[in-house]
Write a structure and sequence with these properties.
It is built from one helix and 13 strands. With 183 residues, the protein is an all-beta fold.
């Protein structure tokens, strides 16, 4: 049963796949009545969900493996994410430990990858609506917060607890980058 709850396949991190792209889900199954947790039976998926400000896109992610044997802090078993436009899966991919997703009105989306390690590190990822990567930035610190502008043109993240930080009074260092014009 746990395998059914937490799907993902081993593979290359940061790579969007087309396995489910174009697949339709029943609109009513994208039910977020449990807050940010959703259940999509067609995808055998239970995980987190955020919607774009205009409500057109939904970004889903799960920090757990396909077998349902591992979730959260672990050393293997890639997590999975889906971008859904209305009732159609437009992008799907896997990263080590996807968390804290955001999606813009144009389908641009970001994820924080907490990675398979207990070291202070993190990876900030940004993708176009088709799942192609825009940014994959590694940090030698934990990623604390991240954000994405409603139009998808600006992404930001804040790292914290960096070793050898020059200014120890500040808990984090902001990283901001324009990630492109709306599509």
């Amino acid at each position: 049963m746990l395998k059914w709850l937490f799907g993902a396949k081993e593979g290359s991190a940061e790579t969007a796949t087309r396995a489910s792209a174009g697949r339709r889900i029943r609109r009513q199954t994208l039910d977020d009545s449990l807050g940010s947790i959703v259940h999509i039976p067609e995808l055998k998926f239970i995980g987190h969900c955020v919607r774009s400000p205009n409500g057109c896109y939904a970004l889903l992610w799960r920090d757990g493996n396909d077998e349902g044997t591992r979730g959260g802090a672990r050393e293997s078993g890639l997590g999975r994410y889906y971008l859904i436009d209305g009732d159609v899966v437009v992008a799907e991919g896997q990263v080590e430990r996807p968390n804290s997703g955001h999606v813009a009105d144009n389908g641009t989306f970001t994820l924080n990858d907490w990675q398979f390690t207990s070291a202070l590190c993190g990876r900030f990822l940004a993708f176009r609506a088709d799942g192609s990567p825009i940014i994959a930035r590694d940090f030698a610190a934990n990623i604390y917060e991240s954000g994405l502008s409603p139009d998808g043109r600006l992404a930001t993240c804040q790292a914290c607890n960096a070793p050898n930080s020059v200014n120890r009074r500040l808990k984090g260092t902001p990283y901001r980058r324009a990630i492109g014009t709306p599509f």
